[in-house]
Amino acid sequence: MEKHNTHAQDAHGSHGGSMKSYVIGFLFSIILTIIPLVVVMNDLLNKTATTVLILIMAVLQFAVQLIFFMHIRDEEKPRFNLMALIFGLVILMTIVAGSVWIMTYNAVG
User: Fold this and answer.
1) Average pLDDT, the chain
2) Residue 90, Cβ neighbours under 10 Å: how many?
3) Among 2, 7, 58, 98, whose CB has the most other CB atoms within 10 angstroms?
4) How is residue 73 annotated by DSSP?
5) pTM above 0.85?
6) How far is residue 62's CA from residue 5's CA, in Å, rounded to a whole number?
7) Residue 64's CB: how many other CB atoms inside 10 A?
8) Residue 44: what pLDDT?
């Protein structure tokens, strides 16, 4: 019984990330924030390309947050957290797409 408790304690103790992991995640976050900022402030790309760049950087920023700060891949069974995350994203995208659809096709003209 004691062996089981120490195993559970070790599993909880190793949940946090290392300082190296946090620094790498922080640097990625800063870089992924600065790139679109520089592009927008200096008007380097046209409107469509800038929008695409911002969306790509946002998705990459989301991935960095999940991997380096929320430790989505470090758990014993990350599948449940990943399924809940995907379900939440599907609900979010459904609400956003439905709102855009309604605003587009029900506009008073």
Assistant:
1) 82
2) 10
3) 58
4) T
5) no
6) 35
7) 19
8) 95
Which of the four pLDDT bands, split at 50, 70 and 90, describes residue 88? Answer: confident
CA angle 81, 55, 99 (to 5 degrees): 80
Helices 47-64 + 19-41 axis angle, to 10: 170
Structure tokens at 51: 């929008």
Q: Are 17 and 68 in contact (CB under 8 A)?
A: yes
Helix (H, G, I), strand (E, B) or coil at 108: coil
CA-based nearest residue to 89, from 56, 69, 59: 59
How far is the first Cα of the chain from the last one, in angstroms, to the nearest whole number?
72
Q: Name 38's Cβ contacts closer than 8 Å, sequence gap at least 6.
A: 44
Tokens of 39: 């592009």
Torsions phi, psi for 91 (to 5 deg)? -60, -45
Burial of 9 (0-12, 13-18, 19+ CB in 10 A): exposed
